[in-house]
Amino acid sequence: MVHFDQSVVFSSITSGRGNAGQANYGWSNSTMERMIDQRRADGFPGIAIQLGAIGDIGVILENMGDNNTVVGGTLPQRMPSCLSSLDNFLSWNHPSVSSFIKADMGAKKSAGGGGNFYSSNLRSYETVAFTCMAMYSKFLMADKYKPERKFRGHITLIRAEQGAAREEDVGRDYGISQVSDDSNVHVVEGDHDTFVQGKSSAKTVSIINSIILNK
């Protein structure tokens, strides 16, 4: 049997704090943490580190902005800081720890009146962009999965008039009609970077309110 001095898994603050639309992601990270709990209970070394957004490398810098981009209430943690935190955590006697940079959300508040939909109703536009990217990836994965039967509930998709870069891969309705007997697509003016701003935001809110009132 091989014995390790350290056993580290990198989890996510989504496991500890949650994130709308990512229950499966949070659950999988939580499962890794429970594995570490079991290792510790069995007398083996182990630590799970819940990380927030990571800076310097990865999807945030490649697709969303820079090291000052706010994601889910956090700022990207620079790589030297991540490694320094890891060095400290390895000397701690805790199975699960967290390391993230909290953003100053007070500076992001809307001035009120008119404004953009995302300023008054969503934490940040960056969060919306990150969520959209994650959804495109999920649609691409779902396209490879064929369910035994269609979903019986109603699904409403609100999408931008100008298609996303990956639309050719997932289709105009992102393949929803293939998995649902009752689906509807609303097209809003703009592209996927702007349709939650200005007049388009009012249209989006109107569609959502109409759906809620008709329930």
Report on this model:
This protein is α/β, with parallel strands linked by helices. The protein has 2 domains: 8-104, NAD(P)-binding Rossmann-like Domain (Rossmann fold, 3-Layer(aba) Sandwich); 117-213, no CATH class. The chain is built from 8 helices and 7 strands, in the order E-H-H-E-H-E-H-E-E-H-H-E-H-E-H. The strands form 3 sheets. A 3-stranded parallel beta sheet has the order 1-2-4, sandwiched between helices. Strands 3-5 form a two-stranded antiparallel ribbon. A two-stranded parallel ribbon has the order 6-7. Helix 7 links the parallel strand 6 and strand 7. The chain is elongated. Residues 108-132 have low confidence and may be disordered. Keywords: Fatty acid biosynthesis, Fatty acid metabolism, Lipid biosynthesis, Lipid metabolism, Multifunctional enzyme, NADP, Oxidoreductase, Phosphopantetheine. GO terms for molecular function: fatty acid synthase activity; oxidoreductase activity. One of its GO terms (biological process) is fatty acid biosynthetic process. It comes from Caenorhabditis remanei (Caenorhabditis vulgaris). InterPro entries: AB_hydrolase_fold, PKS_KR, PKS_NRPS_Biosynth_Enz.
Strand content: 15-25%
**CATH class descriptor name of the largest domain:** Alpha Beta
Sheet with the most strands: spatial strand order? 1-2-4
Question: How does the overall form come out from the CA principal axes?
Answer: elongated
Query: What is the N-to-C order of secondary-structure elements (H for helix, E for strand)?
Result: EHHEHEHEEHHEHEH
* Main sheet specs: 3 strands, parallel
* Terminal-residue CA separation: 59 Å
The name CATH uses for the topology of the largest domain is Rossmann fold
The parts where pLDDT drops under 50 for at least 5 residues are 108-132
Tell me the total number of β-strands.
7
Helix tally equals 8
Helix content: 25-40%
The chain-level structural class is alpha/beta
CATH superfamily of the largest domain: NAD(P)-binding Rossmann-like Domain
The Cα radius of gyration reads: 21 Å
- CATH architectural grouping of the largest domain: 3-Layer(aba) Sandwich
Mean pLDDT, rounded to whole units? 71
Organism: Caenorhabditis remanei
Domain Ketoreductase (KR): 4-55
Pfam family, one: KR
Keywords: Fatty acid biosynthesis, Fatty acid metabolism, Lipid biosynthesis, Lipid metabolism, Multifunctional enzyme, NADP, Oxidoreductase, Phosphopantetheine
